[in-house]
Specification:
The chain is mostly beta strands and 111 residues long. It contains no helices and 9 strands.
């Protein structure tokens, strides 16, 4: 998909997993919606990359678009693959680790 601005996605059809590419040894992201009520960001994680445990003040919904990862929420670990979804409650500690390279959609709800 050619490089588009967030506004270019409105009213169009696209594949979420095609919006961000894998980068060797890195995590890449692309925000496609950014509103006061929340945002939607697509991430790609190379194999063995991850986010250490942290918290966020908002509820968040994560859907795996491709690949496989391990997600820990409040000390409970979950192996997730394409099509799986999990909700991170506000202020709950969570971490993400790539088992294989993977892509995910993060929907952050602020209001």
């Amino acid at each position: 998909m050619s490089e588009k601005n967030r506004e270019d996605f409105r009213g169009g059809v696209f594949s979420l997993k095609d919006l961000v590419t894998y980068q060797v040894g890195a995590i890449a992201s692309r925000m496609i919606v950014n509103k006061p009520a929340g945002n939607i960001t697509i991430f790609s994680f190379d194999e063995n990359e991850g986010l250490s445990e942290h918290t966020a003040p908002y509820d968040a919904v994560v859907t795996i678009l491709e690949g496989e990862c391990e997600i820990t929420v409040s000390g409970r670990s979950h192996t997730m693959k394409e099509g799986d979804t999990i909700i991170f409650p506000a202020n709950a500690p969570h971490a993400v680790s790539a088992i294989k390279k993977f892509k995910m959609m993060l929907v952050m709800i602020k209001e």
